Structures are given as C-alpha cells and as structure tokens.
Amino acid sequence: MPLTAAGYTRPTLAELNTDIEAALRAKPDLGAALNLLPSAVFGMLKEVMADRESDLYEEAEACYQSKDPNTAGGASLDNLLQTVGTARLASTKSTATITLTGTPLAVIATPMTFAVAGATDDTFTLDANVTLNGGGTGTGTVTAVATGAVQALTGTLTVIVTTNPDLTSITNAADATLGRAVETDAAARLRLFRVVTDPNAAGLDDLLDAAVNVAGITKAIVFENTTDAPVSGRPAHSFETVVWDAPTTASELGDAIWEAKPAGIATHGGTSVVIIDDAGNNQTINYTVATKVTIHMRLASGVLNDASSFTSAKQAEIQAALIDQFTGVVDSVSPVQQEIGDDVFFNPMQGTVFNHVFSDGTFLVSGTFTTDTADPPVGVVDIVITDTQIAELVTANIDFT
Fold first, then answer.
1. Could you tell me the pTM of the whole model?
2. Helix, strand or coil for residue 398?
3. CATH for 198-289, among 1.10.12, 3.40.50, 3.30.300, 3.30.230?
4. Of residues 330, 283, 7, the one with CA closest to residue 184
5. How far apart are CA 130 and CA 140, in angstroms?
6. What is the three-class DSSP state of 307?
7. How many other CB atoms are there within 10 angstroms of residue 257's CB atom?
8. pLDDT tens digits, residue range 208-226?
9. Measuring CA to CA, which residue among 391, 398, 296 is closest to residue 356?
10. Quick check: helix, strand or coil at residue 353?
C-alpha cells in the first residue's frame, strides 16, 4: 500500500505495469503464456489500466500532500491557514497624491487615468473629483489599476492618459505608497508554521496581520521577548513590530498594534506614536521601520560557451534572473526586497548567473561574480542582514565589467 506509517509513496508507472501483468498472468483462464506485448490486445489493456491507476494514485498523493504545510499550496494552503484562524494576505494597490494644474475653478471629474513617465503601462486612476482653486491647482489621490508594487517615484506620475481640456499637467510630490502582491505560498507557509509551533504565535499572528494591512506597509515581522531579562535589545516581556516600508499614517499603525497586542505587554521599537484608546487615554506605541540595505552585484569578465559577445540583451537576462532569485518570485519588478531580516546568500545568486541558459541557448563558462553592500562590490560571501534590516536589490545595481 502506498500509505504507510512512514507516509505516502506513490507507485511508479513501471511498478503498476508489473503488478497488473502479474495479476493477469495469475488468472487461471489466462495463464503465464498470456501475450502482453504492447501490440497485443491484453498488452494495450494493461497499459491503459496502468495509466488510469497512476492518475488515481497521483490524485491521492496530491490530496495527502494538501494536508502537509511543507507541500500544500494554493487553495489547499488557504484551507490550512483557515484551520488556525488566519488567512493569506490579499494583494493591495499602490496609491499616490497628485497635484493637478489647469483651468481655475474647473472640476476634474472621474474617470481619469494617468501613467508613469517612461512606464506608461503603470497606470493610476483618480479616486474622486477634484475642483481646482482660483490659481488653477488642486490636490487629489490616485490608485493603481494593477495590484502589487506599482512604482511611481517623485515627479514621475505626469502622463495624462484621459484627456481633459481643463487639465494641463499633473505630478506627484512624493513617491507612491506601494501596494503588495498577494502573499506567496512560501510567505504564507512561514506564518502557518509560526502559529502551529509557537504557543504564543496566535497573538503574534494577529499583530502581523494588523501591521501588513496598514497603508504603506508591504512586509512585517514581530519579535517578542517572553523572558524576565532584556534580549537582543528588547526589554523583558515586550515585543517589537518591524515593518517595511513606513506607514502612510503612523497613527493607523499605532491603532492596529494597540488593538491586536496582548494586555500588559510593552511595545518596543525605534519609532513611537501616541494614539487614543477607547477610553480616551493616550497610549504610546513603539515600532521599528526596517533599515534598507542596498545590495550591489557585479559580473566581471563574463565569457560565453560559444565565445560570442556578451550583449546588453544577455546582461538584461542575467539582471532579471537575479531579481527573481533575490525575491523567490518569477517576473519580479525592480526594486525588490527580501523578507525583513533575511540574509543575502552568495551561492544561490552566483548559481543563478552561471546556471542561466540564455534565450539563444548559450551560457556563461567563466567570469567573476561578486556582491556587497558597497559599490563596487567585492564580496564572495553571504551578506548578513539583522532582524531590523531589509535587503533591497535594484536592476541598476547589477552591473557588468
């Protein structure tokens, strides 16, 4: 039987063929001389039966693995998260504040679509009508059309897609607040493990859920000190909520932490905000915004197997592959960050470079890969990231010499 005390082991197609063949030959009316060659009728029937049994065993294996946090994914992982009272973090959209300029006292009515200069596929829509003042300017908010971290750096949200004769220009005086993609299986699995294995994890999970649902925050982690003495700079019986990026409104994060935190447990962190509790009392909430660590990477003297030119197009392929490896998510868009506190491991990054097969079938046979927090990078070892830091990689910081 495939299911034993040691787990589930699915029989191979070859094993099923052998078992069915033995069963057929054991029938008295068929006998050992039964022709089971692939061209024979019984041979073809045997293969059909083996294929169908293999499909059934494969489905049974998938059902078995759907209950294992190590292998569950998609809807199966969602079901496991529900059993411990949590859920996969939904995707959110980037938002920005824009200044509109045009005809004095004109109403710029929705729907209006704008785009990022140089990235016109990154579009935002106006949230509500904006009435320009007597000087012909007004302020409004916009939301990205697509979910995830749609970037609009300061002064780049300037393209007016939907024309309006009363609107002459727009711009954003600050970077857009980034949205986030739906939580990956890997990230959701880590949260599930924490809830299952840590007796205090339910409270920590509530804190984490509260933090990542605050505008401006895309990543968060919570550390606690349950001992009677300071640990890693955290006072006795305290917890520290570390977030990335900074919340759009600090008080919103403060309220979220206050509502989710255990009674009598102190908050700790490098930033504080005063909120008003339900009784009208001031409460100081501490948290930490992770410190960004910029990562630089370089490939020097890259040589291809066919001695052809290492073109800019192939360099772009390497950059894209490194960005994906850095996050563990395919088709990631620069800039990208790892999880808070995750070290940058050298060997997987170097392996990505030298194991990459280019679109024309060529590959690198030699070169020197380095990575560092300084530019130019010279390191060939892992980069240690503390639990209040976050590593960021930008395509422009992956260069070639």
1. 0.57
2. strand
3. 3.30.300
4. 330
5. 6
6. coil
7. 25
8. 888 888 888 989 999 989 8
9. 398
10. helix
